[in-house]
Q: What sequence folds into this?
């Protein structure tokens, strides 16, 4: 449960807007306050995330991008990058891996956070695809002979030190978010199109964080599977 001391570059790679706020925003807020450089990469813009029959994919995507930027600002995230893949049909293919490798090589993160694709009965195909593609990209990004055409104009291979997987069934790394849970809840509320009508939102987030923290003697925590390279 040791946490970073020296200033680090941290990248969160997910499928949709609101994935970080539901999965790891307490950790993001805590690390941002400590001075770490945290950035988001959204593979899709959530363009299928609505039950409104009058809403178009373009309109909901624009709305959700604005909501995500507002949530990121609440947490202290320095930048949000949208890759604009279609929502709901994401695939962990070679094209996506190549795209993520270039993002990693340009930013050079020390730590990457993403969704655990091996969670038992992880039913959402986009979540599985995002996790697999991100982990594959982490491995590929360090090899200079994989996608060598990217290594121009100062772009170099990237060796990530660790990956933290959230929404996991096999946690072995916990972050105390007792001082940042309020910011996590505030950030999640920025996603009005997704959670605007949920009166029990704060209670559910607190209960979830309490459940994660209690075995570790923490009031509130977020849990991860940690892969060290």
A:
């Amino acid at each position: 449960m040791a946490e970073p001391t020296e200033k680090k570059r941290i990248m969160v790679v997910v499928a949709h807007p609101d994935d970080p706020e539901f999965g790891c925003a307490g950790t993001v807020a805590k690390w941002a306050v400590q001075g770490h450089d945290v950035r988001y990469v959204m593979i899709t813009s959530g363009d299928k995330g609505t039950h409104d029959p009058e809403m178009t994919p373009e309109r909901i995507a624009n709305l959700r991008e604005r909501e995500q930027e507002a949530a990121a600002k609440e947490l202290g995230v320095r930048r949000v990058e949208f890759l604009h893949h279609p929502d709901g049909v994401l695939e962990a293919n070679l094209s996506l891996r190549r795209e993520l490798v270039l993002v990693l090589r340009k930013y050079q993160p020390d730590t990457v956070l993403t969704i655990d694709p091996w969670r038992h009965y992880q039913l959402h195909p986009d979540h599985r695809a995002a996790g697999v593609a991100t982990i594959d990209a982490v491995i590929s990004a360090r090899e200079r002979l994989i996608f060598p055409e990217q290594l121009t104009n100062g772009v170099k291979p990237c060796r990530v030190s660790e990956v933290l997987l959230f929404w996991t069934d096999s946690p072995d790394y916990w972050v105390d978010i007792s001082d940042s849970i309020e910011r996590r809840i505030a950030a999640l509320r920025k996603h009005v199109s997704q959670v605007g009508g949920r009166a029990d939102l704060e209670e559910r987030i607190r209960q979830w964080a309490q459940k994660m923290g209690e075995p570790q003697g923490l009031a509130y925590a977020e849990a991860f599977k940690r892969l060290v390279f």
Q: What stands out?
A: The first strand starts at residue 9 and ends at 14.
